[in-house]
Amino acid sequence: MPPVDPRSVPPGAYGNWPGLNQTGELRVDRARLRAIAKRLESDLEEIIEATEDLQRANSMPDQAYGTWDAARNLVSSIVKGRSVLAEQHDAFLVDALQAIKMLRRTAQVYDDVESELERRVMAVRMELENAPVPSSDPSPRATDHPRSGPGSLR
């Protein structure tokens, strides 16, 4: 960010903006950014571990919900819900990894942790993509279509 001429704004205006000094230059607390990235990495680890539970739920046979009429009618909703959940899980993994990368670059941290996380996220994404689709769902998986927007559930 180029320096801002302090005479071009009212006196004291910069004093009200956290992270800016009196000349208008941005101050970055690299230690704080590293701590935030580390915390997000820890949270991402938990999400990666939760993938196993998601896959177990996705592989549950349709008969597990019951064989009576009401249960059979409910299965298509469950299948769609599981598909959307897997799609959102995948999107979160990608977005969290991107946020970690940006935080680490801004904090000027360079090491192998990022590449290891990226490898693990890609492995989980491949597992989710290759997960078997239940036979009762004739429609394509929700991940076959691009997301309609950030956080979109369609």
UniProtKB/TrEMBL annotation:
Among its keywords, does the record have Coiled coil? yes
Annotated segments matching region Disordered: 1-20, 128-154
Q: Would the keyword Coiled coil be found if you checked this record's keyword annotation?
A: yes
Q: Which UniProt keywords apply?
A: Coiled coil
- Parts forming coiled coils: 30-57
Give the superkingdom in one word: Bacteria
UniProt protein name? PE domain-containing protein
